[in-house]
Task: structure prediction
Amino acid sequence: MSKLKLAVSDNDHKIGNTSAKTVLVEYGDYQCPYCGHAHPLLKRLLKEHGDKFMLVFRNFPLQEIHPAAMMAAQAAEAAALQGKFWEMHDYIYEHQDNLHGNSFLDFATHLKLDLNRFAEDWISQSILDKVEGDFESGIRSGVNGTPGFFLNGNFFNKYDATYESLERAII
Result:
């Protein structure tokens, strides 16, 4: 069984109870249909049990099969610099069928981001480094597909996740 190699830190995107004992780390790809399936399940878990666990998201764009995944990850990270990571994260998943270069500027407009800053940040080396760092930590932890989940540091294979299976594991 794989173990999470990079501990959760201040560099990670966290939501839910940030002091909870239960931590679910997701390595996700914004264009992956399985991640798209898991997204509303995780949102529901956070709504119903967000006081009992913390969700951490790390980028794992599978560029060879999902050509817009890297751009999407960079867009989410650029939004994070304006304090809107989770809003962009959710918006991308909710519009997963419309991911291309121009769509991310539309998403940024919808989220009322500073578009000039977003455009600069989106293609910056620091954003690219963040996404690539997330990806490398996933590789080191044994992730080879998405979503890749780790529950309290242990690999948790839930490609075919149901709400109930995730709820049982987390709660």
In short: The chain has a mean pLDDT of 94.
